[in-house]
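The authors assume throughout that readers already know how a fold can be written as discrete tokens. In essence, backbone conformation is discretised, so a fold becomes a row of integers matching the chain in length. A single example would do more here than another paragraph of explanation. For illustration, here is how one protein appears when written out as sequence plus structure tokens:

…
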Amino acid sequence: MTPLTVTLYTSARAVRHTQDASIQPLCIGVCFSGDLPRHLVHGVVPIQISVSIAEEYRSFTTLIMESLALDGYPYSENSGSENVCALPSLSPATGMSRYPLPSNFNHTNSHHWSQLSEQIQRWLVNIPSDSQHWTWGRDAFWFAFVGAFPDFPGGSWSRWDTRIPLEGQFIEQWLEAGAASLDGDESHENLLEKIWAEFCAHTMLFYPDPLLSLD
């Protein structure tokens, strides 16, 4: 079979209160036509994929590749009151990959973010910390936590499980620049809109379907 080479394009988004920009994740679907003789299939089928970025960007970024099978399981060889939102359970095996958020989840409501962060935290501390699920879940937790407490690290906020470190691109950038964004320059609602957009982009790594349930 002749290797297939294509050029794809993604966008870059400005990083708050800096002169930098971050390259947005790109979800790629790969389909295979034709049928294999059954005796050739031994559990998993190895697929070789090569990804590169233009020379001028290589010194500034590191490529990270994840795979997502259609059954929703990610695998990689690379390194009761008002406004209560009933959230689904998260399983250690699949994380959020099979559980869209309920249709009444309101990303401009910090109480909903608080419920989501608690749910992610309970799931996260019960899976191996060296798994790709854990790294993904850690970053998802911090999106939700800051959505719940947009004044963080100022103001009042709930304690979180200390097994979840203050690490990851989003939370580290937030701690460096977040306080400056809360001096009256930007409303909480606008901040939550931006956090929601970044949260959606992040979850696409393991869950490419719509985040909100359609029912």
Residues 22 and 128 are 28 Å apart (CA to CA).
